[in-house]
Automatic annotation (TrEMBL):
This is ATP-grasp domain-containing protein. It comes from Paenibacillus kribbensis. InterPro entries: R2K_3. Residues 146-303 form the ATP-grasp domain. Pfam families: R2K_3. It comes from the Bacteria. The lineage of its organism: Bacteria, Bacillati, Bacillota, Bacilli, Bacillales.
Length: 313
């Protein structure tokens, strides 16, 4: 199993500094690693960038295997589904098969694709495509929430650190406020906008503290990494505050995970003030971040064991 990490933007032979510690731990545990140039991956004309996209050491490894493919996973910055599809198709021509297909990547990376699977366990949500971001569509979507509080995000991320300005809406029936927050969200996202927007019912979670910079409420949230439908690692979501590790029965979440059409993904969960466990969202495991306090050796050991048990090492 090969792990492909993003290289330093200014030095293609060095790992991106934000992934350096992960890269070093993965190497120490015996993973075959390679570096890929993120800027070249997201270029439109990928065909001319093959030498940068297929790491030399992996090309050498492939040459020794004849016509066999090698399996790989990516650990790096988020890619649009379109860029990921083009990149994985190119890698396939070089006999590198990403364990997560382009379809699987989109299934977990874009909220509207995963929402039907987690709908029973997540706050009610309405998704609007980019061409639906008109006053009429936004107001109609907000009406379905009555006077409930809302959160705004795109198909991948929120602007939770712009909490009051571009994320939280205290009353969905205040149409002027709804549209102002949505418009500000779109403005701030700019070129980084992923798909359309999602309006989500705001649910009060078990409160910990307010974020020291943005003032957003921090709650007991946890990130679970799944491999082939099984939970392999769980970590507290927030670095800004200490809280106990989760002691929850994950049976319902594991049942849902079995329906997710991806080999490697994350599930963010949280506990409400009423004591109910809910799913916040799913994410692709390759581009889901690890908090700074994460025990990286434990994470990559768990990943290695899952791959070995599957016969992919």
């Amino acid at each position: 199993m090969h792990l492909l990490f993003c290289s330093d933007p200014l030095d293609s032979k060095s790992v991106d500094m934000d992934y350096r510690e992960e890269y070093e731990v993965a190497c120490s545990l015996g993973f075959d690693t390679g570096l890929v140039n993120f800027d070249h991956i997201i270029q439109d004309e990928l065909a001319g960038a093959a030498p940068f996209i297929v790491p030399k050491r992996i090309r050498e490894h492939i040459a020794k295997r004849g016509n066999e493919h090698v399996n790989a996973l990516y650990r790096g910055w988020m890619l649009s589904p379109k860029a990921y599809e083009a990149w994985t198709a190119l890698l396939e021509t070089h006999r590198i098969r990403m364990l997560t297909s382009a379809k699987s990547y989109r299934n977990c990376h874009y909220f509207p694709d995963s929402y039907p699977i987690i709908q029973e366990f997540t706050p009610r949500s309405v998704c609007l495509e980019r061409n639906q971001l008109t006053t009429e569509y936004i107001q109609e979507a907000a009406k379905s929430f009555g006077a409930s509080a809302l959160m705004v995000k795109d198909f991948v991320k929120s602007r939770k650190h712009d909490w009051l300005e571009a994320c939280y809406i205290p009353d969905a029936s205040d149409q002027e406020h709804v549209e102002r927050v949505v418009r500000r969200f779109v403005e701030l996202q700019g070129a980084e906008m992923n798909g359309g927007i999602v309006l989500r019912e705001f649910v009060n979670l078990e409160f910990l503290t307010n974020h020291p910079k943005s003032g957003m409420p921090l709650s007991k949230e946890y990130r679970i990494f799944f491999m082939f439908g099984e939970p392999i690692f769980m970590v507290n979501y927030w670095d800004e505050v200490a809280y106990e590790e989760v002691r929850s029965d994950l049976e319902d979440f594991i049942k849902i995970a079995a329906q997710v059409r991806s080999p490697f993904f994350t599930m963010d969960i949280a506990r409400t003030q009423a004591g109910q466990w809910i799913i916040i969202e799913l994410g692709d495991g390759q581009v889901s971040g690890l908090p700074e306090h994460t025990d990286l050796e434990a994470f990559y050991t768990s990943l290695k064991n899952a791959v070995v048990n599957r016969g992919l090492w």
